[in-house]
Amino acid sequence: MKLYNTLTRKKEEFAPLDGKTVRMYSCGPTVYNFAHIGNMRTYIFMDILRRTLRYEGYKVKGVMNITDVGHLLSDADEGEDKMEKAAKEQRKSPYEIADFYTKVFFDDLKKLNIGKPELTPKATEHIREMLDFVYALCEKGYGYETSDGIYFDISKFPAYGQLSGINLEDQKAGARVEVNDEKRSPFDFAIWKKAPKEHIMQWDSRWGKGYPGWHIECSAMSKKYLGEVFDIHTGGVDHIPIHHENEIAQSYGYSGKNPAKFWMHGEFMLVNNGKMSKKLGNTYLVSQLEEMGYSPMCFRYFCLNTHYRKKLNFTFEGMDGAKTAYARLCALVAKHREGENDVSDEKLAAYRKEFEEDVTDDLNVPGAMGVLWTMLKEPASRKIYALALEMDKVFGLKLDEAKAEEVKEEFPAEITAIANERAAARAAKDWGKSDELRAKLDELGYAVKDTKEGYTLTRK
Ligand code: AMP
Ligand code: ZN
Question: What residues does the tRNA synthetases class I catalytic domain cover (predicted)?
Answer without folding.
Answer: 14-322
